[in-house]
């Protein structure tokens, strides 16, 4: 199923559009099914109702583990590089990983977990995180992995939304020279989570933790009590595999639902093609498994293809800015997949940290999560790829399950800052505000997809209406991505960024409404408005305009209090970079905040604020402009 020439890509693309069912059936044939499907695809985007490989039976872990054992059992499945470079890395071969997954799956069973139960995983980037994820899949439990940077409140919201029965966590995690007390955060979260019956705790940092009798149990003790034989649960292709929470324009994060069969086919197919993975190569995706990139390209994509996936516990700048290049050299990494924000951050240290490190094992470089600016693209290409590695700028989203628009390494001619062309099976369209398709090249519009692919989300957990409203109602019979996009004269796609109220901070999606709600929880705050602004390293930063109740307030202290409030309510990742206290916000006569004006002010583009005459109080704009100039 690997595409090896541009002609082969064009043929595959044509086939996928003209006969999608035949095309995807051909791809799905490369996977292991207990029973093949009765129907490849049935769909409508109006409900929406999308089903792939209906009637088929499988278990994704048999595809990720069992099927590789006979011939590749001793191949490293996971290489783990610890936060501390002095500590030894760990290699889990397919055989060892299989045993660990089966054993831990039995631990889950022993603790009452059944097919369909939801399990919350809040863990550091250690091999046991991958084991926990796969163990859930082994027995048909639905995992909901929560990124380690989220607060107790955010975790509680997610646990309650999914009604999780069990939580898997660790005492703590190492991040650079910091330690994060994960179990403590879970303890706080669980005060408000009545559905959770058990908490399994892995020893990692060996920090003291409070273990509650009858609820909390140690990972290490439990695995001793079970054997390593755990037959894989037979799953329907459309059974739920996982829930992953992501932010949108409104309300609380929603639980994006992916199902077993389609997701597996899509993650595996895109992995092997986009990166041109070759047997025995080492693939290093620097994402955290708490995000979709980690799900699809640390765990399921690579393992379904028998690949060796490198998992890194730490951060690129610890102990210093040469860490990534040390890892590439040490583990002879062949494919590196990272985010523009990491590239820009490392770029700021110059080329000195790269010198002396042998990067000659690198063959393919990938980028994901946000638009990559040309400067970062060239630096990545020249300093890291030595002008010799294709860069695949992969555009996709949590809701997509896998890469959607991207070059295929060694196949698609690349172009700096362009995601280039849709992968086979993906039918992008650009639409204008009225929902009309904009045809031809050299055009811009809102990016939609008009035909389903196997990795498309099936619903948002517990609220199908929300799924319909968010993705399938803006434009009739199309999936709306929320991104703006340009298609150039060659038909190449360039993603220009979100067109909704979502900010992309260091490749992480944050809803402005969510941050506003958090800020407004501070007792002194009357009202706030949050927008994104261009940030040299993070891509976008968070800019908060805040009306404070008491005019005598100590600005510095109140800013710190607000940051603390946001950290408590959402997590440190949502902390505003800038807070400007204002006496009013620009509102229309109907009371709507004119974010367009705030965005321009945050961007520093105050010379052309557009028409402000319809504002309730135009004078407030001048005050904000003056305040913002001082803050810069
Ligand atoms: O705006 C796009 C941006 O990230 C959003 C999806 O975020 P998330 O669901 O968290 O998934 C991130 C990793 C898959 C998109 O709507 N985005 C992602 N990749 C790119 C990108 N923007 C430009 N270029 C990309 N390669």
Largest sheet entry: 8 strands, mixed
Bound molecules: adenosine-5'-monophosphate-propyl ester
Order of strands in the sheet with most strands = 12-11-8-6-7-14-15-23
The amount of helix comes to 25-40%
CATH fold descriptor of the largest domain? Rossmann fold
InterPro entries: Ac_CoA_lig (IPR011904), ACAS_N (IPR032387), AMP-bd_C (IPR025110), AMP-bd_C_sf (IPR045851), AMP-binding_CS (IPR020845), AMP-dep_synth/lig_dom (IPR000873), ANL_N_sf (IPR042099)
Pfam family, one: AMP-binding
Protein name: Acetate--CoA ligase
Keywords: Acetylation, ATP-binding, Ligase, Nucleotide-binding
Question: How would you sum up this structure, described in words?
Answer:
It is a single chain. This protein has 632 residues and is an alpha/beta fold. It folds into two domains: 6-315 and 394-468, Rossmann fold, CATH 3.40.50.12780; 503-631, 2-Layer Sandwich (GMP Synthetase, Chain A, domain 3), CATH 3.30.300.30. It is built from 18 helices and 30 strands. The strands form eight sheets. It has an eight-stranded mixed sheet with strand order 12-11-8-6-7-14-15-23, with helices on both faces. Strands 5-4-17-16-18-19-20 form a seven-stranded mixed sheet, with helices on both faces. Bound molecules: adenosine-5'-monophosphate-propyl ester.
